[in-house]
Specification:
98 residues, mainly alpha, single chain, rod-shaped
Length: 98
């Protein structure tokens, strides 16, 4: 999943293998370079915040879907138990009358 993060009409994209590794990142030597790096980091943080929100919503939706599924399964089992109970009672009546 790619989250589109826009700030100042620029779009950030996920890092790929050809991108600079964060392990090798060095701060700029001048103020202008530091400001560019700072703004880039702000953009990355904003993007990550959006990603977290998307994932939180997905998790919540999956939780709700799973609850609905479990409730349906439980209702189905209750119906099957009711049918089996009726059949068992019928068989008990048949054997008692013999």
């Amino acid at each position: 999943m790619i989250i589109n993060c826009q700030q100042n009409n620029t779009t950030t994209k996920p890092l790929n293998q050809n991108s600079m590794s964060i392990k090798n990142a060095k701060p700029a030597d001048d103020y202008k370079g530091l400001l560019i790096q700072f703004n880039a980091l702000k953009t990355i943080v904003a993007c990550k915040e959006k990603e977290v929100e998307v994932y939180r919503k997905q998790i919540e939706r999956f939780k709700i879907e799973r609850i609905v599924q479990l409730e349906a399964e439980l209702e189905s089992e209750r119906e099957m138990n009711a049918i089996l109970t009726e059949e068992l009672e019928l068989l008990n009546k048949t054997f008692k009358s013999e």
